[in-house]
Design brief:
The complex is a heterotrimer. Chain A has 3 helices and no strands. Chain A is mainly alpha-helical. Among the domains of chain A are: 55 residues; 36 residues, no CATH class. The C terminus of chain A is likely disordered. Chain B is mostly helical. Chain C contains 6 helices and no strands. At the A-C interface, helix 1, helix 2 and helix 3 of A face helix 1, helix 3 and helix 6 of C.
């Protein structure tokens, strides 16, 4: 096969290194709470990692641009799907006088479930375990 | 020279295994045609059953439960087993490589796999029928579909599997169109049917995966009670509708874009005139494909989605009609000052222009939220989508069959009988479905087996003309098959209509197994009737 | 690089030359990637919608997932992507044995991923953190949350579908190992390896998003 761009070994190793570093960063950052920025930072790092994989490992940087176009189009349509759906789910009860509350506060079967500890073993409801009971109940 | 003595794909290679394991796109196209027609007839019988029941008020011979099963199966079979696969699978497979000057599609083995995947999915649907049917409506709305005791899982599995067939065909066509054209065949010299298949294929690969995952989620909801669509478990049934219609609206464009392509081929040839507005038609195809992804919520105006999204969906829906209007005007302008011959393909194309315009315009009526609140789930919607899907796609499909039959089969059919059948289809269709607009406006709901006596007269007309429609379609297909009989076979020659695209100018009728004896050299554009004279090889 | 004047045995009859065949295969593969993005995309829509409705529940429930196992899986998958791309690099350099070694390494990493997933899943089965109606865990972290079963439903469907793709990838890589060992793939024809490599990178790509969405935020 002629004229196929062969990526140098060094490029692959550098990109892999970058991916490991970015993974470490995203885990480290998750231990801090930036409020609503949490999701943006996490998705930003993930997108940067994904871009590296797509452009270098999947070779899109050197390929026929049609392939990159198709990949971007797929993300664009996914974006359309998410955004327009959120226009519905995020704005229920916006105009008509309906009571807007979450679909169901709590599914009925939870009332029949016994409290358990972190290993799944049931605990005595009136026990001395100090972890329970101090969060707000619905 | 008698064409049937020359080597052609129908007779060579021989033997049943050479058909079952064929990699020849033309044979695969025929197999899709065969399968498609069988399911068309099955769906049609179900429809005639419905019309028979609805001819008079009350439950004449179907209980309400049986009727639910019948309309569900009618819808699912027609949509998933006939309309979506038929034009790309049958005509697309047959013609695309020929129109490009290629020896085959890009991935012939994948093409055969697509056909067998279609067959497997079809078997799941047949099983569902035998096992007692499914009664949720072809839309499988939750929460009924998650709790219904009918055979939801086999049917949705069948649809899931058929989805893969659709995806792989689309993938194959995209690669073929991009990569397998002969030198000199640039994008703007392609036949418009190729542009149509390209737009369709883009929609197929982008939208169909979503119905696949939707069916998976529905099956998991039934099996595991996940709760994603069940309010009692914190889920949302309207979310199912978003998932379903995100595919199913683009699906209607999968159904109509190939039909538009067929009309774009028939009209210039049978008017012996260059197509007007080639680039308009080409780009309107891509526009429809794209805008079609933004409007799915107009199927959900009464579902309880937010009013904000209603407004957005309604607004964008108005835009999707514009490129279609561009096409209709372009086709009419093509005929203007042309030499129109009223051959059967042309008669079907003219029927299309009339019927699809009505269907398309009534779609715009439904795009207005205020109107749709009253018309949703009434017979107005039923009439609208039958005008576009049957008056549009199926009429174009019949026209395409009549146009390309002599080329692909090497036999000319009786054109007088074909023309009479076209008239029968046109009259039968209007007689069946126009009253349904009126029924819907007067409040007749859809998916009801019985109704108040006030609706009886219109239902009566509708049922009567449905018989004419069914009979005409049946005779039309039989007429085509009748042309194949060995005795008295009419030889159409290589170019009976005097067309200019590669499948007409460079192949025999039927084509050689490898399409072309040697690779064609492009001499003129696909519709250059103003520059070149091509004589038809068949005189009536 | 020289062209073969005679038709090589891997050139299919309907293509003019190997370049056309290669480019077409790549285009077809990327069209397939498009469909995979949309398939998983549907599930991402479900995630986004439910997260927007139950933000505190998602934050609370994700504490139940083992970040260490998730992190280990991420590292395993990135490494397997590296070995996959090195397998292609090696065969381009005519290093057949190295390529084979890299493919086997990729396969083993994939197996490790599934193994770690198995450990995670089995723990959840034990304590009752299951999808939908089967959910029965009411530990202290979730006792006050609204409908944590939704989190686990979406978690199992998304990681399950992803795991299925890992398993399918393993099958494809196993075939590559066979073909490379036999010599059917070599420096002049390695298209299947590259195409399956692109699929494998997609599997990695999806996990790059799943990891933070379920384990970190």
């Amino acid at each position: 096969m002629s004229e196929h761009h062969i990526t140098p070994l060094k490029t692959y190793l550098v990109i892999a290194g970058a991916l490991f570093c970015l993974t470490a960063i995203t885990v480290w950052v998750s231990y801090f709470d930036f409020g609503s920025l949490n999701i943006i930072i996490a998705m930003g790092v993930a997108t940067f990692k994904a871009t590296l994989v797509a452009l270098f490992f999947m070779h899109l940087l050197w390929d026929d641009k049609k392939n990159l176009t198709m990949f971007i189009m797929s993300l664009m349509f996914l974006g359309i799907f998410i955004t327009i759906t959120l226009l519905d789910t995020g704005f229920r009860g916006g105009v008509n006088p309906e009571v807007e509350y979450p679909i169901n506060k709590r599914a009925a079967f939870y009332d029949s479930l016994p409290l358990t500890d972190t290993h799944g073993n049931p605990v005595d409801e009136h026990g001395t375990d100090s972890h329970e009971g101090d969060e707000d109940h619905h | 020279m008698a064409e049937n003595e020359k080597l052609n794909y129908l007779t060579h290679p021989k033997g049943i295994m050479s058909w079952l394991l064929t990699l020849d796109h033309k044979r695969i196209g025929l197999m899709y045609l065969f399968g498609g027609i069988i399911f068309f007839f099955l769906g049609g019988l179900l429809a005639l059953g419905m019309r028979l029941e609805l001819a008079a008020p009350g439950n004449d011979f179907m209980s309400n439960e049986t009727y639910n099963n019948v309309y569900t199966l009618h819808g699912a079979i027609m949509i998933f087993l006939f309309i979506i696969p038929a034009i790309p699978g049958a005509l697309g497979n047959m013609l695309l490589p020929l129109m490009l000057g290629a020896k085959d599609v890009a991935f012939p083995r994948l093409n055969l796999a697509s056909f067998y995947i279609y067959t497997l999915g079809a078997l799941f649907v047949v099983y569902t029928i035998i096992a007692g049917g499914v009664d949720t409506g072809w839309t499988f709305y939750t929460p009924y579909s998650t709790t219904s005791t009918s055979n939801v899982i086999p049917m949705t599995m069948g649809i899931f599997i058929i989805g893969f067939s659709s995806i792989l065909t689309g993938l194959n066509f995209i690669a073929t169109i991009h990569k397998m054209r002969i030198p000199g065949l640039t994008w703007y010299k392609l036949p418009l049917f190729v542009w149509a298949l390209y737009g369709t294929s883009l929609v197929q690969i982008t939208a169909t995966p979503v119905i696949a995952i939707t069916m998976v989620l529905l099956i998991l909801e039934r099996l595991l009670g996940i709760g994603i669509f069940d309010p009692a478990l914190g889920g949302d049934p309207v979310l199912y509708q978003h998932f379903f219609w995100f595919y199913s609206h683009p699906a209607v464009y999968i159904m109509i874009l190939p039909a538009f392509g067929i009309i774009s081929e028939i009209i210039p040839v049978h008017s012996r005139k260059k197509i007007w507005g080639y680039k308009f038609i080409a780009f309107s195809t891509l526009s429809i494909a794209f805008i079609g992804f933004l409007v799915w919520g107009h199927h959900m105006f009464t579902s309880g989605q937010s009013v904000f999204s209603q407004i957005v969906f309604s607004f964008i829906t108005y835009f999707v009609g514009i490129p279609t209007g561009v096409k209709i005007f372009s086709w009419i302008l093509t005929m203007y000052k042309g030499q129109v011959s009223f051959t059967p393909p042309m008669l079907y194309a003219l029927s299309f222009l009339f019927l699809f315009t009505i269907g398309g315009l009534t779609g715009i009526f439904l795009g207005a939220v205020a109107l749709d609140i009253h018309l949703h789930d009434t017979y107005f919607v039923v009439a609208h989508f039958h005008y576009v899907m049957q008056g549009g796609t199926i009429i174009a499909f019949l026209g395409g069959l009549h146009h390309w039959w002599p080329k692909t089969m090497g036999a000319m059919y009786n054109q007088t009988v074909a023309s009479i059948c076209c008239l029968g289809v046109f009259l039968g269709f209007n007689g069946t479905f126009f009253p349904q607009f009126l029924l819907g406006l007067r409040g007749m709901p859809r998916r009801y087996a019985t109704y108040d006596p006030q609706y009886a007269e219109l239902h009566n007309y509708s049922s009567f003309w449905s018989g004419i429609l069914g009979l005409s379609i049946f005779i039309a297909i039989m007429n085509l098959l009748w042309s194949l009989r060995k005795s008295n076979k009419l030889d159409p020659g290589t170019n009976p209509w005097g067309a200019m695209t590669l499948e007409w100018t460079h192949t025999s009728s039927p084509p050689h197994p490898h399409n072309f004896e040697e690779e064609p050299v492009l001499e003129h554009g696909p519709y250059d009737y103003d520059k070149v004279i091509v004589e038809p090889t068949f005189k009536k | 690089m020289s062209h073969d004047n005679s038709s090589p045995d891997f050139l299919q009859h309907h293509f003019h030359d190997v370049d056309q065949q290669y480019e077409t295969a790549k285009l077809g593969m990327w069209a397939f990637i498009l469909t995979e993005v949309l398939t998983f995309g549907g599930l991402f829509v479900a995630y986004v919608v439910y997260r927007s409705w139950y933000p505190e529940m998602f934050v609370g429930a994700n504490l139940l997932l083992d970040v260490n196992k998730g992190l280990l899986n991420t590292i395993v998958l990135i490494t397997s992507s590296l070995t996959m791309v090195l397998a292609v690099w090696a065969i381009q350099q005519k290093k057949q044995k190295l390529s084979l070694f890299m493919l086997i390494a990729t396969f083993l990493f994939a197996f490790m991923f599934l193994g770690i997933k198995y450990l995670e899943y089995s723990h959840k089965f034990e304590v009752g953190q299951l999808p939908g109606e089967y959910y029965s865990y009411m530990g202290p972290e979730v006792a006050h949350l609204n409908n944590p079963h939704i989190f686990f439903s979406i978690y199992f469907i998304m990681t399950g579908l992803h795991g299925l793709h890992v398993a399918i990838g393993m099958g494809l890589i196993a075939w590559l190992i066979y073909a490379t060992a036999k010599g059917n793939l070599h420096s002049k024809y390695y298209t299947p390896m590259e195409m399956i490599g692109i699929f494998w990178h997609l599997v990695d790509l999806i996990w790059i998003y799943l990891f933070p969405l379920f384990y970190l935020i």
